[in-house]
């Protein structure tokens, strides 16, 4: 019984990724182009999300500031999920809804990118961050699932919506990680051309 459940997780994950590939290839290409253009112009990428999506934000920032699969100069990316003093102060003094938006207001500039991650598309603090980003003339790349939720309706034509065609949170998160790796690889290829994996 346990082995069968484990196998079903692997099979469902693989099937979700295969189904997502054709749906997400174009928005992922648009996200790569948007982010590469911003980085080339001296702008930065801010990333946010809750729970597993917070971990994905940090994973993304680590890949850009450190490296993905090859040596290169550090790229400016910042996860808005890591400063516990800042997060708890804003949550306590204002509200949990503002923990990311205040940081976008503090650090975001016109031309920067917000990577907004929410499996449901309905995370209130991620939505507030998007509002703050749009007010600052930043562009948004949203990673969602479950139809995109309210976030899908907030985005402009200049933004990119990467909505995983799945309902189960674990499967959406697994595809989000693959998307993040696709973006990191795409940025590296845009910077340096093809690599050994081609």
UniProtKB/TrEMBL annotation:
GO terms for molecular function: carbohydrate derivative binding; D-sedoheptulose 7-phosphate isomerase activity; zinc ion binding. SUPFAM superfamilies: SIS domain. Pfam families: SIS_2. Its main location: cytoplasm. GO terms for cellular component: cytoplasm. It is an enzyme of class 5 (isomerase). Binds 1 zinc ion per subunit. Belongs to the SIS family. GmhA subfamily. Catalyzes the isomerization of sedoheptulose 7-phosphate in D-glycero-D-manno-heptose 7-phosphate. This is Phosphoheptose isomerase.
